[in-house]
Amino acid sequence: MPALPLIIDTDTGSDDAVALLLAAASGLGDVRVVTTVAGNVPLSAGTRNALVSLQVAGRVDVPVHPGCERPMTRTLSTAQHVHGQDGMGDTGLLPDPMRSAEPQHAVEVLLSYPRRHPGELTLVTLGPLTNIAAALVRDRDLLTRYRHVYCMAGAADLSGNITATAEFNAWADPEAARVVLQAARPDKVTWIGWDVSRRDAVMTAEDQSRLERLGTPMAAFAHRVNRTVADWARDVTGLAGYDLPDPVAMAVALRPKLIIEREEAHVDIALGDETRGQLIIDRRRSAPPPNLTLVRRVSEAGFKDLLFTTCAGIGQSGRDLKDIPGV
Ligand code: RIB
Ligand code: CA
What we know:
By secondary structure, the chain is α/β, with parallel strands linked by helices. The protein is about 40% helix and about 20% strand. Alpha-D-ribofuranose binds near residues 39, 167 and 168.
């Protein structure tokens, strides 16, 4: 199977970093370009973290383009209480990026790449949907120009992480999420919500020590950057470990056969104060036609196998991962 040509839009914090490793070092993805957006951390920190993560994956050649520094209408609220002040677990051990960010704005890149390569590129979004919505204002049909669009966003079971019922990416910029939902079609756009991560992508204590024991630079990096998320998971979510929302979304894009359960539905998003960012899933027979495919379950074993083999440096690319620059 040829590697999947990818554009990744990310607010790089600790789990985005692991998703970038999967995309860049599993051999299943061909990362053409990365765009960044404010979300888990401010834009400058997320851009730096994306550059560092690609470096750890051995892909300093991938251009990174910063995008929107704030949501469409709201004040930026980051998740540094979860991912750390630096977004990467505050370990003090991150290498400096060897490459700088590109001058061209992310929104220009999101618009121009699929025009140059119609139907070829898969877009994976791992942060608030601000860049995508801004691009959609310019090109209403943009999503159809991609081969497929996968978004880590929302919580289809209405169990939230930033509020009782809302997931962070959907909550951070709900107006942007609504713009994307209004342009979406179920054959083109798939959302993987936090409900999938909580059920099928939790790194138990055993998984965490297996990752640590791999002893490769990528495994050490993936383990360390999730340090503060592990504390937050213990104190707040009560899961049996920290979960990996962006990596499981990336795994679905790279290997759709991992999906065990999905549904097509008409989905909107709540904008009001009490329900901000909550998904409104209309399953009535009288509902408008579906606009989205929602992934509901993923193979946990398949996801973890991809994670461990990639971090062990035995992805299918055959790349020698022993001498990673800057790590
Ligand atoms: O809701 C989960 C948060 O952690 C989101 O920002 C997601 O993209 C991940 O980074
Ligand atoms: Ca993210």
